[in-house]
Amino acid sequence: MKLFLDTANLDEIREGATWGVFDGVTTNPSLIAKEGRDFVDTIYQIANIIDGPVSAETVAQDAPTMIKEGRLLAKVHRNVVVKVPLTVAGIQCCKALADDGIRVNVTLCFQPAQALYAAKVGATFISPFVGRLDDVSEDGMDLISRIVKIYQNYPNLKTEVLAASIRHPMHIVQSALAGAHVTTAPLKVYKQLFSHPLTDKGNVAFLKDWETVPDRDIIGQVERWLAART
Length: 230
Ligand code: G3P
Fold this sequence. Notes:
It contains 12 helices and 8 strands. It is an alpha/beta fold and 230 residues long. The mean pLDDT is 97. SN-glycerol-3-phosphate is lined by residues 6, 26, 28, 129, 131-132, 164-165, 184.
């Protein structure tokens, strides 16, 4: 499963890039507004930090203008994926951009039939919002499972399920179990993925036992061992 960072914060993306696990980044107008920086330059900088799909969202509400926005955004960097909302104009835009060979992430998906439309017009990604459904006492992960199943029923559909609006580590685990192709989440959620008390406890115990070893300097010991054999 691909892991994308859901943020426009360059410091968070730089920190995440050091882990070597992230395959892309998703942004949206709210995440961009939160940073208070130039939109296009932010997208360009993100695309130069993480060498993978970087979602940049259109904001026009009519298809012709949305298409123009998308075609221009795609020129900013080869990693740019144009993000459009799951509306009539968004689907019309997705069709036009996909026909141009431009990758599209269709976002704000909240029910399975919407995902069919996105796949029919050649979307690269569909973004079902898990957390926002959970927030209103619906089963967001069930939406992921149903879309994965629908797409599996029709192998000609090439759209990847990008589980979005991820609130906690179990959403990531459950997305992987459901067969999502991608999850996108804030860095803080991915930091939680590292954590387990038994990992921390086990590491402390290993280090405590290692303290009883006479020569604890692995680097020096291996260098001397190798030198004695050359
Ligand atoms: O960026 C798309 C999606 O992941 C945003 O989700 O609910 O955290 O705003 P949310």
